[in-house]
Specification:
Helices cover about 35% and strands about 20% of the residues. By secondary structure, the protein is α+β, with helices and mostly antiparallel strands. The strands form 4 sheets. It has a 3-stranded mixed sheet, with no helix packed on it. Strands 5-4-6 form a 3-stranded mixed sheet.
Length: about 350
């Protein structure tokens, strides 16, 4: 027993213990059938409650593996124009300090992952892939004058319930990790799910004589994960630094600068300030921006000035091959020529 906890401590020391350890399912998760309970042991970072959820809901694991992949790709795409570009999520289930400490970056990744899991489960319900759920219930609100409720909506309720049970488990029933970090992670997970809830929108399909749309059926569906990630990115930029301190008799997270107000349900929170990610510093989980591409005409975060932190940039030209002068031939193929175009590229010094 003593030996075991020593091993756990040791592993935590080498950035192994993390509440988003399950993102490592991207490594082996797809090659598994998820039809035998011993498959749940594949990733030894699942906490006991997650293991139990897995054993009881094996089919759901496909949705969770999918969510882990979506978390990775959407995070990288959403942050590709920033100094911190979510590249370290690639190392899951191992995490560098940018994601292993209570930073702003880990806040947004937790929120994104929480949203992705519930999103994925809610969608799987609607597509009939899960035995425990089906389409979401018909909305209680009256349909508009020009449509009726129909089709199959995403089952948000089931997605939220099962998703929260899975992603919140590491914070709920474990003795490792600080109380402050657990509160931070739980809060940010809830923010991710709230953004998901707010993304629910009415989607419609037309019927009737060739596009006349005389009959319209509508249902409630979730927005794409890219839209949800974009919303979370703006929350990341406006995230609030918090401290863990006594408020009355209980210890809570409160904004550091303005600790008279409680933390809002809509804001991402973090405990540890991040480096500026300008220079390489492995101890801080910063890769630096040397050799990163920047955009000379942009004045956003991918501008050469901001991306290169004022160090300047090198320009080089690159030839890119493109299909051009495409012609459509009756019937049915397209021929194109290949054109070469020279483009200027800029990379940070
Ligand atoms: C599990 O799934 C795999 C592939 O999907 C299949 O080959 C195997 O027979 C299944 N095993 C059981 C016990 O159903
Ligand atoms: C993936 O599978 C390999 C071989 O089965 C195993 O050695 C490795 O630890 C697994 N990786 C993860 C992240 O579970
Ligand atoms: C993200 O940043 C890393 C480290 O600076 C870099 O190697 C990688 O190419 C970047 N990825 C993208 C898509 O820009
Ligand atoms: C650079 O930024 C400008 C303005 O935001 C944009 O129109 C252009 O597509 C960007 N170029 C590249 C290569 O991303
Ligand atoms: C660039 O900055 C100018 C003024 O500083 C602003 O009007 C413009 O909208 C900005 N463009 C972009 C693409 O952010």
């Amino acid at each position: 027993m003593k030996y075991c906890s020593l091993v756990v401590l040791f592993l935590c020391g080498v950035r192994y213990c993390n509440a988003i350890h399950w993102l490592g399912l991207t490594v082996n998760g797809s090659s598994v059938g998820w039809n035998q309970t011993h498959h749940c042991k594949l990733l030894d970072g699942l906490v006991p409650d997650q293991l139990q959820l897995c054993r009881r809901n094996l089919e759901m694991m496909h949705s969770i593996v999918h969510a882990a992949k979506v978390t990775k790709t959407t995070c990288q795409k959403t942050f590709s124009d920033m100094r911190w570009n979510c590249s370290s999520i690639e190392d899951a289930p191992f995490f560098t300090p940018d994601l292993a400490k209570g930073t702003r970056e880990s806040a947004v990744v937790f929120a994104l992952a929480a949203a992705a899991v519930s999103h994925s489960i809610a969608r799987s319900c609607a597509s009939g892939d899960l035995p425990g759920c089906s389409c979401g219930p018909a909305p209680a609100e009256q349909p508009g004058p020009d449509f009726r409720w129909g089709g199959c909506g995403d089952n948000l309720r089931y997605g939220l319930q099962m998703g929260a049970a899975f992603v919140d488990a590491p914070m709920k029933n474990s003795r490792s990790g600080s109380q402050a970090a657990k509160l931070m992670n739980l809060h940010n997970n809830a923010v991710g799910r709230q953004v998901l809830i707010d993304s629910m929108e009415t989607k419609c399909k037309c019927h009737g004589v060739s596009g006349s749309c005389s009959v319209k059926t509508c249902w409630k569906g979730l927005q794409d994960m890219h839209d949800i990630a974009a919303e979370l990115k703006s929350k990341y930029l406006a995230a609030t630094k918090v401290i863990h301190r006594h408020v009355g008799t209980r210890k809570q997270l409160v904004p550091k600068e303005m600790d008279v107000r409680p933390v809002r349900d809509t804001e991402l929170v973090y405990l540890v300030s991040s480096p500026d990610y300008c220079t390489r510093n492995e101890k801080q989980g910063s890769y630096g921006t040397q050799d990163r591409q920047c955009n000379k005409t942009s004045n956003g975060s991918d501008s050469c000035n901001l991306m290169c932190c004022g160090r300047g940039y090198n320009a080089y030209t690159e030839k890119v091959a493109e299909r051009c002068q495409c012609k459509y031939h009756w019937c049915c193929y397209v021929t194109c020529k290949k054109c070469e175009r020279t483009v200027e590229r800029y990379v940070c010094k």
